[in-house]
Amino acid sequence: MKWSESYTVNIHDLDQNGNMRPSAVLRCMQSAAYNQLEASPLCREYLKSRYLAFILSKINIDFLKPLHKDDSVTVQSWPHGERGFSFFRSYRILRGDELCASACSVWALTDMQTRR
Questions:
Q1: Of 29, 38, 66, 83, which is least surrounded by CB within 10 A?
Q2: Taking the mean position of all CA atoms in its chain, how far away is CA 3?
Q3: What letters, b where the CB count within 10 A reaches 16 and e where it falls short, cover 71-87?
């Protein structure tokens, strides 16, 4: 299931050239992923009570079109499979129907007590 959120690029997201900074793009993507997790049975409190955490292992991001102040975008995030204790997640940012950024990440589910 894809999680979608609306976001408006603000002045604090921009670099010196007026483009949305890569860190701001990643923050939007991760916020969407976090909000989807919180709406699921695997919410942060559930994981915390079992001393589990998702740790980012890898991420690949493509910046396709620059985003600017006051751009209204849709940020999407969704899980797309797992292998063992590795969980895969995809993201994209759309300005209307135009794909501006996309990413794929791999997360490890880690036991914080045993560090395994």
A1: 83
A2: 10
A3: bebbbbbbbeeeeeeeb
Please, what is the end-to-end C-alpha distance for the chain in angstroms? 28
Sign of CA dihedral 56, 72, 97, 22: negative
| Mean per-residue pLDDT pooled into runs of 10, the chain (116 residues) | 96 97 97 94 89 94 98 97 93 98 96 86
E strand residue ranges, 1-116: 3-8, 52-63, 72-83, 86-95, 98-111
Measured CA to CA, the distance from residue 91 to residue 115 in angstroms comes to: 28
Query: How many CA atoms lie less than 13 Å away from 97 in the CB half-sphere?
Result: 0
At residue 99, φ and ψ (nearest 5 deg) are: -75, 120
What is the maximum alpha-carbon separation in the chain? Answer: 46
Q: What's the pTM value of the predicted model, to 2 decimals? A: 0.90
